[in-house]
Amino acid sequence: MAVVSQQWVQRRPVWLRDTQVFRRRAVTFIQRAFTYIVLIDIAFVFLVPIFYILATSLKTAQDLTDPTIVWIPSGFFWINYPLAFLAMNYPRSLSNSLWISLGSAFGQTVSCAFVGYGFARIRFPGRDLLFALVLFTFLVPPQTIIVPLFILYKNLGWINSYNPFIVPSFFGHGLKGALFVVVFRQFFKTQPWELEEAARIDGASAFATWWRIMLPMSTAAIVVVFLFSVVWHWNDFFEPFIYLNRMEHFTLPMRLSVLSPSLDQVTGGQAGDLFNEALVMAAVFLVILPPLAIYMFTQRFFVESIDRTGLVE
Question: CA dihedral in degrees (223, 228, 233, 236; nearest 10)?
């Protein structure tokens, strides 16, 4: 039967074979076209705000009131960036944001990897119940528990310091900590058990197995968790606004909320003549510039790590 079928395929009319080839190519073309259309739409949604920020930040006061000027300004008015730089006290605010973002990201990466390994590879009574409680903390909005947390940190003397952000991160908590535990748990569950059995035969403890074998293998999960933690802590405004009330401790996103008074101090009371939408957009671009730079340099590793951890599944 196989020989007969193969002979029939070879003896098919040329027009029939050409029709089937055309159909396959047409289906492939439609699938690719649909994929590109979806990707272009998604890119449009994300890139249009960036283009709007850049275009508006270079406009003059006359361009802002001219209805004929939307995307391309009449000239490149670069003075908005130095004014925004000075008004936000950029070096100090950048240092504050880096301390909170990098310190919290490092703590969450280490602690969540440790907790995720325990939930994935170690069997102990009540493991599933504890993991359900971890998921519950992810579902609870931070606004609902901010009052008792503020009272606790105030009694500890942590207000106007970075401790409310960095210290909890070293205990598997902090911003989105439960999600990072889930990421590491799902990653460690996919690793072969033979590695731990071999380590146990060699006399390695559970901690030594995690530190020397499993953690070096989890580079993909580490990259995903670290970058997500950095970006989310960088963009966070709610918790820093609660725990930090001195200007010298403000992060870059917090500086946007006091941009006009800060500009008034820098310009000697002339903020009313200089403060406009173009200046705000320049300040916004300076705030998002460091995360954009980080993503540009780590894009390849980030995409590969997302694919390996299966975070989007």
Answer: 170
What whole-number distance in Å separates Cα of residue 245 and Cα of residue 142?
19
196 and 88 in contact (C-beta within 8 Å)? Answer: no
Residue closest to 191 by CA, chosen among 223, 216, 208: 216
Neighbour-count burial for 139-166, b at 16+ CB within 10 Å, e otherwise: eeeeeeeeeeebeebeeeebbeebebbb
Compute the distance between CA of residue 107 and CA of residue 233 in angstroms, rounded to an integer.
12
Which are the contacts of 6, defined by CB distance < 8 A and separation ≥ 6? none
Half-sphere exposure of 80 (CA within 13 A, CB side): 25
CA–CA separation, 31 and 49 (whole Å): 29
Query: Interhelix angle for 90-121 vs 127-139, to 10°?
Result: 150
Range of lowest pLDDT (153-167, 221-235, 290-304):
290-304
More confident residue, 14 or 78: 78
Residue reference for tokens 């001195």: 246
Annotate 2-35 with DSSP letters as a single string: HHHHHHHHHTS-HHHHHHHHHHHHHHHHHHHHHH
Cα separation, 253 vs 255, whole angstroms? 5
pLDDT digits (tens, 9 = 90+) for 44-76: 888 888 888 888 888 887 877 777 777 777 777
Could you identify the residue written with the tokens 């010298």? 248
Instruction: Report residue 144 CA to chain centroid gap.
Output: 23
Q: What is the DSSP letter of 74?
A: S
Report d(CA 260, CA 280) in Å as an integer. Answer: 9
Say if residues 115 and 179 touch (Cβ distance below 8 Å).
no
DSSP element (H, E) containing 85:
helix 80-87
Q: Which residues, at least 6 apart from 35, have a Cβ–Cβ distance to it below 8 Å?
A: none
176 phi/psi in degrees, rounded to 5: 60, 25
Mean pLDDT of the 285-313 span: 72
